[in-house]
Amino acid sequence: MNTLTRILVTTVAIGLAASGVARADGTVEVLHWWTSGGEAKAVGELKNAFENQGGKWIDSPIAGGGGDAAMTALRARVVAGNPPTAVQLKGPGIQEWAAEGALNDVDAVAQAESWDGVLPPVLAGIMKYEGKYVAAPVNIHRVDWFWANPEVLAKAGITEMPKTWDEFNAAADKLMAMGITPLAHGGQPWQDATVFEDVVLGVGGADFYRKALVELDQDALTSDTMVKAFDQLRKMRGYVDANFSGRDWNLATAMVMKGEAAFQIMGDWAKGEFLAAGKVPGKDFLCAPTPGNGFVLNSDSFTFFKVSGEDNLKGQQVLASLIMSPGFQETFNLAKGSIPARTDVALDKFDSCAIRSHEDLVAAVASNSLVPSMAHEMAISRSVRGEFLDLVTNFFNSDMSSADAAKMLADAVKRAQ
Ligand code: BGC
User: Fold this and answer.
1) Domain boundaries, the chain
2) If you take atom 7 of ligand 1, which residue's CA is the nearest one?
3) What is the Å distance from ligand 1's center to 188 Cα?
4) How much distance in Å is there from the Cα of 191 to the middle of ligand 1?
5) N or C: which end of the chain has fewer CB within 10 A?
């Protein structure tokens, strides 16, 4: 070994030891639900980066937007004593699995790389169990977005994105009168719940959202404000096409792309779909927050299940470090439609929707109007969330009154707690 090589090898070894990573390889089996065009592109970035470091990636995708199918598959794998090494998981779900003793921590990597210094405190808290990092966040998704086709809006003389639900209803009525479907929607419980929580934010504001959907306050759940939110949801039901039932979210996004519908209400993974199809924000599609002056937070993260074997354990450490590297956070989020979880990644390459998301996030933190997504498992336990999804879907697909819906929701939540 010549002197230069020796210096290089030593430097690399010290660097890797300092970051808690023994060698840049290892194996990971990754369970995730990123199977749409934009999602597959984004997870492909993670796979490539891991393989480029010499690691072996075993892909375990479980299709199904929102991840409900993936969570069922995960439970079955754990019960069978054969968990995957890395799992896309979030919010209280992280705490639930950690409390079951199912997770390995990646705290050595997190400490060596000072994750506390580069993550928003609200996110760092979600990633930790008993003070140790058990998850690594890849992004910050925003749930409260309208996506729209500008040509379709122009046809109906709609010149601005709606800022209130009344404005949205007025625009939708114009579109209906012209025979255009106002709202592209997929009738699946998690999509119904996505629209519902955005409506709750718009009708009640952030404090009400928090009381009803996070603190599960009975007074808030049975309040007139909640009844009004159901009234607005009932209106939305009138704005979807006849074939909405069961439709996947990305097919609803495609309807907006193709001009078959004007709007979609969906998190910014929808932007990943537009971008994967070569569409340009501001020109081919528009984004604007749904009413409420808040920010409904959803963040994807990976957890590391208890597996044995040197190679698997190494894979977990390497993956955790890679996920949190600034370069990866940029590349991944450019494809996914979200913004980086790290606060120190420059947004120069990001589009106007991402910049808006970042600005609104900062403003929402300052005004205490950042709220966690109930539909996307950031707010409450899986069992209580299940009650919300059941009730909201039943409401959407029946002629249940708003008053009955609020009462039944409050009762169901009480029973599930
Ligand atoms: C996830 C996103 C994903 C979306 C649709 C959300 O819960 O956070 O990453 O793209 O579901 O599958």
Assistant:
1) 3-141+299-353, 142-297+355-416
2) 66
3) 14
4) 11
5) N
> Which fold, 142-297+355-416?
D-Maltodextrin-Binding Protein; domain 2 (3.40.190)
Compute the distance between CA of residue 70 and CA of residue 189 in angstroms, rounded to an integer.
15
Q: Whose CA is nearest to atom 10 of ligand 1?
A: 269
pLDDT digits (tens, 9 = 90+) for 213-266: 999 999 999 999 999 999 999 999 999 999 999 999 999 999 999 999 999 999
Alpha carbon of 25 to those of 58, 322, 373: distances in Å? 13, 11, 35
With a 6 Å cutoff on the Cβ, whether 67 touches ligand 1 is: yes
The string of pLDDT tens digits covering residues 88-128 is: 999 999 999 999 999 999 999 999 999 999 999 999 999 99
- Determine if ligand 1 sits within 6 Å of the CB of residue 57: no
State if pTM tops 0.85. Answer: yes
Which ligand 1 atom is nearest residue 299's CA? 8
Question: Ligand 1 mean position to 141 CA, how many Å?
Answer: 8
Q: Where are the alpha helices (DSSP H) in 156-248?
A: 165-177, 189-209, 218-221, 224-237
What's 105's DSSP letter? Answer: -
CATH class of the domain at 3-141+299-353: alpha beta
